[in-house]
């Protein structure tokens, strides 16, 4: 289970981040004030920190300078979008920088990427009889290895990272096939059908009416 | 060409023209004078010699008919004189009526010159072939068979002296020119130095060093220029600082505004996504809806306050003022604030010592409501807020005071900045957008009133509007 420390003074945003992470199965601790970050860090261990810059008490940059997070990866979430601030944040040792307003898929993808870089993400998912080893690109169903094409694997990975969140067909095409893909959405439907069949995910990968697909876990 | 170079060239040229021309005229004049003097002395000498020849001839007083003997006689007379005068650069000759030389020790004498003799003495200056100059005086010794006497004097000495003067003149002139050139250069460089300094300073200021000043404290024109220049620099620096500060504030306003807008936007986008895409419980859906609603109304309030601020900034002149009774204003305020006062359990006391004030009713009410709302947020249940209209030596004063949490000293200056919040999360929770005191300050400005904040942490805040 990935443990996230969310430091953001605006309750609405804090809850929003927390809600998104909860949906994909992360565990969150919410902190609203720069002053209580240190005590929160003492109480528990975290895999990743989501940090706002403008905070009451000690601000985000200051917290980074103080080095309170040690080797926990940090992602800044802030409305300050000028390049100087981004550079400052990254120079202070942040692993990534997300500018408000952001979309939840961006937040999740970036968090996932940072976790993967720092080897703290979940590499093995078990759903029903299916076990997915993300790092090794291996999938077994009832201990029997299943062959997946590269695209199919990327699609599965994307659905896994955003599990319980519906992704539109356009978004899935963007994330899996890339921004320059102008093909038919039917390609996606074909891949989804194949995934369902190969992994016995008929009831797991749900079609969301008029929108897209969702992997329910 | 630079200014000092122009001055330099002009003075040198003027010097050459005036000095050299003057000296040349003097030399020429003295040459003429000495030539005249020489001529006079020649004439005198010539007369003396002639007289002496005549006397000698008279002394002999005999008419000699033998031409050869006569020639010898005359020749001997003149020879002794010629010998005597030779040392004085004088040569002479005697010619007979037929232009035959009876005696001569003049070298290269052009006999044709004798023809020019008429009645008077003839004075001729002529350069001889060897480069010497002679002055010839040719005269009749009329009594004696029209003999012609030639007096010749070598006057090269005057020319030599003149040449010497000219040489000296050239040396002196060149020397003086050099001396003038050097001193002129030094003086001009010294005199134009302040111009260079001014120039350098101007360039530095142009390059953006607005605190640059010229260091030149003399009372001459350059001193005055430097002083005026420094005054101008002061003005420029002040203006630039003002503009920089203004643009900094504007940039800050935009930064803050974008931040203020992004937070509710993030909520709206994020929660909408959750509602649209995620498989979440009804409870969470309701929560998301609430957040979206809150964020949207936050944005709506923000835009409303911004509109007001923009309106006040652009239409301040069009706002009308009138005398309004303070009790009327107080009643309105009571009505508007009663709900939030009740909610928090705070009381509002009104002390009214003024019958009326000159103001714009709506703006005045909105300003005071704003201040009272702030006071309510700062106060605890059971405390009271005082709204006081009174007059003292400072003039008419409206004061809103509370016994609430107060403001830190270093924050007092900042509270009127747009979007500045002493307590960010509490302000947002109360639905504030961070423009309240900016609006109050603006309204005070429109009323040409002073806006004074006095506050002590934990002791409460008092805000005075000095009308």
Commentary on this structure:
The complex is a heterodimer of chains A (217) and B (467). Chain A contains eight helices and twelve strands. By secondary structure, chain A is an alpha/beta fold. In chain A, helix 6 crosses helix 7 (169-177) and helix 6 packs across helix 8 (185-199). The longest helix of chain A has 15 residues, at 185-199. Chain A starts with a strand and ends with a strand. In chain B, the strands form three sheets. Chain B has a five-stranded antiparallel beta sheet with strand order 2-1-5-4-3. A five-stranded mixed beta sheet of chain B has the order 7-9-10-12-11. A two-stranded antiparallel sheet of chain B has the order 6-8. In chain B, helix 6 (326-344) runs parallel beside helix 7. Chain B starts with a helix and ends with a strand. The A-B interface holds A 9-13, 15-17, 19-20, 23, 32-33, 54, 56, 79-82, 100-105, 164-168, 208, 211, 214, 216 and B 255, 258-259, 262-271, 273-274, 276-280, 284, 287-288, 291, 294-295, 423-425, 428-429.
Encode the helix/strand succession of chain A as letters: EHEHEHEHEHEEEEHEHHEE
- Structure summary, number of beta strands of chain A: 12
Intertermini distance of chain B: 63 Å
The biggest beta sheet of chain B reads: 5 strands, antiparallel
Q: Strand portion of chain B, in percent? A: 15-25%
Q: In terms of structural class, how would the helical and strand content of chain A be classed? A: alpha/beta
Helix and strand run of chain B? HHEEEEEHHHEHEEHEEHHHEE
Q: Bin the strand percentage of chain A.
A: 15-25%
Which regions of chain A have little confidence, pLDDT < 50, spanning 5+ residues?
none
Shape of chain B: rod-shaped
């Amino acid at each position: 289970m990935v443990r996230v420390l969310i430091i953001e003074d605006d309750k609405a945003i804090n809850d929003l981040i927390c809600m998104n992470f909860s949906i994909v199965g992360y565990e969150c601790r919410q902190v609203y004030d720069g002053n209580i970050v240190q005590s929160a860090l003492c109480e528990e261990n975290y895999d990743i920190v989501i940090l706002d810059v403008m905070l009451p008490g000690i601000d985000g940059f200051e917290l980074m300078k103080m080095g309170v997070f040690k080797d926990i990866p940090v992602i800044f979430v802030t409305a300050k979008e000028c390049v100087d601030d981004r550079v400052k944040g990254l120079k202070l040792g942040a692993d990534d920088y997300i500018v408000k307003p952001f979309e939840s898929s961006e937040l999740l993808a970036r968090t996932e990427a940072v976790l993967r870089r720092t080897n703290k993400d979940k590499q093995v998912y078990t759903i029903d009889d299916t076990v997915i080893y993300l790092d090794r690109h291996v999938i077994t169903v009832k201990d029997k290895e299943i062959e997946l094409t590269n695209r199919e694997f990327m699609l599965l990975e994307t659905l896994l990272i955003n599990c319980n969140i519906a992704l539109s067909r356009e978004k899935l095409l963007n994330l899996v096939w890339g921004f320059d893909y102008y093909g038919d959405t039917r390609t996606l439907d074909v891949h989804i059908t194949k995934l369902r069949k190969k992994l016995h995910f008929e009831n797991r990968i749900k079609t969301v009416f008029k929108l897209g697909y969702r992997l329910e876990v | 060409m630079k200014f000092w170079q122009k001055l330099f060239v002009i003075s040198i040229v003027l010097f050459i023209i005036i000095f050299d021309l003057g000296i040349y005229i003097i030399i020429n004049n003295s040459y003429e004078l000495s030539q005249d003097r020489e001529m006079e002395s020649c004439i005198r000498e010539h007369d003396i010699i002639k007289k002496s020849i005549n006397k000698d001839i008279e002394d002999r007083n005999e008419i000699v008919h033998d031409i050869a003997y006569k020639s010898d006689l005359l020749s001997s007379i003149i020879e002794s004189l010629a010998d005597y005068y030779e040392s004085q650069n004088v040569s002479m000759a005697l010619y007979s009526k037929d232009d035959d030389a009876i005696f001569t020790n003049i070298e290269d004498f052009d006999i044709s010159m004798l023809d020019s003799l008429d009645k008077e003495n003839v004075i001729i200056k002529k350069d001889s072939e060897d480069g010497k100059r002679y002055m010839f005086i040719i005269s009749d010794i009329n009594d004696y068979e029209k003999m012609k006497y030639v007096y010749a004097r070598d006057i090269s000495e005057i020319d030599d002296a003149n040449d010497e003067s000219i040489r000296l003149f050239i040396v002196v002139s060149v020397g003086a020119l050099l001396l003038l050139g050097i001193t002129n250069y030094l003086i001009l460089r010294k005199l134009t130095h302040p111009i260079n300094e001014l120039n350098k300073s101007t360039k530095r200021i142009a390059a953006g060093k607005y605190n640059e000043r010229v260091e030149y404290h003399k009372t001459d024109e350059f001193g005055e220029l430097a002083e005026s220049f420094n005054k101008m620099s002061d003005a420029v620096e002040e203006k630039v600082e003002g503009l920089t500060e203004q643009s900094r504030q504007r940039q800050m306003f935009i930064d803050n505004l974008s931040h203020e807008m992004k937070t509710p936007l993030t909520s709206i986008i994020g929660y909408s996504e959750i509602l649209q895409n995620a498989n979440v419980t009804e409870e969470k859906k309701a929560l998301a809806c609430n957040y979206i609603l809150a964020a949207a109304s936050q944005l709506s309030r923000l835009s409303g306050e911004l509109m007001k601020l923009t309106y006040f900034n652009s239409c301040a002149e069009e706002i009308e003022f009138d005398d309004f009774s303070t009790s009327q204003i107080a009643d309105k305020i009571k009505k508007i604030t009663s709900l939030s006062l009740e909610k928090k359990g705070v009381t509002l006391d009104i002390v009214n010592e003024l019958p009326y004030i000159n103001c714009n009713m709506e703006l005045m009410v909105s300003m005071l409501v704003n201040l009272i709302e702030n006071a309510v947020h700062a106060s605890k249940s059971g405390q009271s807020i005082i709204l006081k209209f009174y007059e003292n030596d400072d003039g008419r004063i409206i004061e809103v005071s509370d016994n609430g949490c107060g403001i830190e000293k270093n924050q007092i200056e900042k509270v009127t900045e747009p979007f500045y919040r002493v307590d960010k999360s509490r302000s947002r929770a109360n639905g504030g957008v961070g423009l309240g005191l900016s609006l109050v300050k603006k309204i005070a400005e429109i009323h040409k009133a002073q806006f004074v904040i006095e506050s002590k942490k934990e002791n409460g805040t008092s805000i005075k509007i000095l009308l």
